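#structure-requests
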Amino acid sequence: MSTATVDLGPVPSSWKRRHLLGLEELSAEEITLILDKAEVFRQAMDSGERRIPLLTGRTCVNLFFEDSTRTRNSFSLAARRLGAEALDFSTSTSSLSKGETVIDTAKNIEAMGVDAVVVRHRTPGTPLLLANNLRCSVINAGDGPHEHPTQGLLDILTIRRRKGRIKGLTVALVGDIAHSRTARSNIWGLKKLGAKIIVCGPSTLVSPRWAELGIEYSYSLDDILPRVDVLNLLRIQFERQYTRPFPSVREYAHLYAMDRARLAKAKSDVLILAPGPINRGVEVAAEVADGPQSAILDQVTNGVAVRMAVLWLILGQR
């Protein structure tokens, strides 16, 4: 397939954002626009197109202060497939170890002629801080437990491709809701597109205050299973916890792991998602993760398409 068959047209005039900091700030129309453009890129990828040089001459830097496999590699691949230069920043060999601030580090990188910074940081609000201090575009790749907008978008795209719609579906987010940036981005995006959302997990990780936002909460996965169209199984983020939220991993798996027995209680066409990295036997059993209802690897593929769409919308308008 030639690049001429990738029909995106110009960046729509309705898209006016220089940054992508979270889904909370986006409208339903903006979210749908990203999904629609990501669908075009996904179809191009499925047709064998690996090079769509729409951003030739642009430069993107991955500024990651936390470990990442899927997100960082996905952004790098997305930029290169669009013809942009992609640079990975390593905190272990940077001047941060000498006392340089995050802002000064980012400004020095920007001064090298960078068009976009993709940032991941343990502190919520870091992408916003950089957006307020840099002239280049800033894309949030995860800021602590706050938001992870492209993960939310790829999850929603996966649901839409498998189910054909978002509105009217019941989506359960199961696990460590308290510390999950993925959960928050999913909640903002899904709610704006008309899905019903249930957050489920131990009482130490699921606050009843979610009800104030019109979101159902439950402490029992077995109780909600028959009603759910999509299950998004979130990792327990021990690295963000100061106290153990439940007695043991074994007990958590007994109550919340999606296994063959629980799958039998769910709808026959229930869709299983997991943002990764997955812990087999904790959040999800191997036979479910690798089964026909699982779209875990499809999420990864959709992640490249979503990040291509985001980069094109942000950088292609200038």
